[in-house]
Design brief:
This protein is an alpha+beta fold and about 425 residues long. Helix content is about 30%, strand content about 25%. It has two domains: about 1-20 and about 230-425, Alpha-beta prism (UDP-n-acetylglucosamine1-carboxyvinyl-transferase, Chain); about 20-225, UDP-n-acetylglucosamine1-carboxyvinyl-transferase, Chain (Alpha-beta prism). It is globular, with a radius of gyration of 22 Å. Bound molecules: uridine-diphosphate-2(N-acetylglucosaminyl) butyric acid. Uridine-diphosphate-2(N-acetylglucosaminyl) butyric acid (EPU) binds near residues 165 and 327.
């Protein structure tokens, strides 16, 4: 196991290239189960979630050959092999094996998904969708069993706007008999990306990206080549880093429209941002003012940028209120920021940040992926050295983050943990 060190104070300068979207990748890979010939996905990010999902595709009998960001998946020999334990428990997105395997084999056994600890993450809406399509769904000793004689299109109203449920129902419905309508669907760019892949495979989907998605089931889907969209959360994280500590940073391979709520808030704070067609250019400002943010479903402010943004607010003049309406308890980074001298208090689903405070390097722990990003940003702006454990969470979602930041001039490096340190963490 390794830990990460960041020596604060260095200004960032140069270009950073954004990788493929993690939250698309984790759905696109399982979606390939639905095809009957080779699918090629290009531009996948170099993160551990992609490695684990590729291995899971092989566990069920497929082949997944990775060559840098391109994966060739041959789904022809896949079977409905049960996946109750092991890798499937490591990440939340393994729940997409439910929809995809149900869609192809009409049966699946999948362990309850793991993933970041950011509060309760139920999957009742996924199950409601599968049942509406005709599946019987049972929970037996921590594994979900899904069985259907036949899947038949249905009208499904989501009680909660959910990215995962919207995608999972699409996966199960594209090969069902007849028409499915998903109402109150989530509208995230990653949903459009998955619908684009499925459409290239031969699926009939209309309305992805709006809150009503209509699917006309087809009997078979075939292979294709698909290029993933850029990761708006990775791009947003580097944009926040540049706003905090950038002299002049160019963030390349971005769809600026995907980041509108973040860019609006940064401009409100006084950060200088130039938008190109596929890039952003960001320069920090010495004086930024406090702003309030409230996370909402897309196109509102994304919950996945709430934690990194909170760190930035510690530098701003005045009091900011950060409210997370999606994951109301996504505040595990706050205690760690406090250790670094931030003045923040949590009240219900809000964090109140009293700025500005000069952060000080400290030993902190990344409890989840975006908390990890928040702590790296804190390390970049702090006085002295920040030591971050729990970096396996960060590597689940940010490709080559130490290299990318080193290229921008940051002082950041990894070291092996001693046995004593590892024992302390496990206790
Ligand atoms: N919800 C339910 N029932 C469900 C599903 C969701 O009550 O059946 C609730 C959740 O508890 C949450 C809200 O609905 O309060 C939204 O959850 P959603 O289903 O949209 O989240 P998800 O699909 O589990 C994805 C991303 C998350 C991101 C959220 C919100 C993946 C693998 N994960 O999760 O990404 O925060 O959408 O945008 O796509 C991350 O990247 O750090 C991350 C956690």
């Amino acid at each position: 196991m390794q830990k990460l060190f960041v020596e604060g104070g260095t200004r960032l300068k140069g270009t950073v290239k954004i990788g493929g979207a993690k939250n698309s990748a984790v759905a696109l890979l399982p979606a390939t189960i639905l095809a009957d010939s080779e699918v090629i996905i290009e531009g996948l990010p170099d993160i551990s979630d992609v490695v684990i999902l590729s291995e899971l595709l092989e566990e069920i009998g497929g082949t997944a050959k990775r060559d840098q960001g391109t994966v060739h998946i041959d789904p022809t020999k896949m079977t409905s092999m049960p996946l109750p334990n092991g890798k499937v428990k490591k990440l939340r997105a393994s729940y997409y094996f439910m929809g995809a395997m149900l869609g192809r084999f009409k049966r699946a056994v999948i362990g309850l998904p793991g993933g970041c600890h950011i509060g309760p993450r139920p999957i009742d809406q996924h199950i409601k969708g599968f049942e509406a399509l005709g599946a019987e769904v049972t929970n037996e000793q921590g594994a979900i069993y899904l069985r259907a004689e036949e899947l038949t299109g249905a009208r499904i109203y989501l009680d909660v706007v959910s990215v995962g449920a919207t995608i999972n129902i699409m996966l199960a419905a594209v090969r069902a008999k007849g028409k499915t309508v998903i109402e109150n669907a989530a509208r995230e760019p990653e949903i459009i990306d998955v619908a684009t892949l499925l459409t290239s495979m031969g699926a009939k989907i209309k309305g992805a990206g709006t809150d009503v998605i209509r699917i006309e089931g087809v009997e078979t889907l075939s292979g294709c080549t698909h290029t993933i969209i850029p990761d708006r959360i990775e791009a947003g994280t580097y944009t926040i880093m540049a706003a905090a500590q950038g002299d002049d940073v160019l963030i390349d391979n971005v769809i600026p429209q995907h980041l509108e709520p973040l860019l609006a808030k940064l401009r409100e704070m006084g950060v200088d941002i130039e938008e190109g067609e596929e890039h952003l250019r960001v320069r920090r400002s010495d004086e930024t003012t406090a702003v309030d943010i409230k996370t909402l479903v897309h196109p509102g402010f994304p919950t996945d940028l709430q934690q990194p943004f909170t760190t930035l607010l510690t530098k701003a003049e005045g009091t900011s209120i950060v409210t997370d309406t999606i994951y109301t308890a996504r505040f595990k980074h706050i205690d760690e920021l406090r250790r670094m001298n931030a003045e923040i208090k949590v009240e219900g689903s809000s964090a109140i940040v009293y700025g500005p405070s000069q952060l000080q390097g400290a030993r902190v722990c990344a409890s989840d992926l975006r908390a990890g990003a928040a702590l790296i940003i804190a390390g970049l702006i702090a006085d002295g050295i920040t030591e971050i454990t729990g970096i396996e969470h960060i590597e689940r979602g940010y490709e080559q983050i130490t290299d990318k930041l080193t290229n921008l001039g940051a002082k950041i490096w990894k070291e092996e943990m001693t046995e004593e340190e590892m024992a302390q963490i496990q206790n």
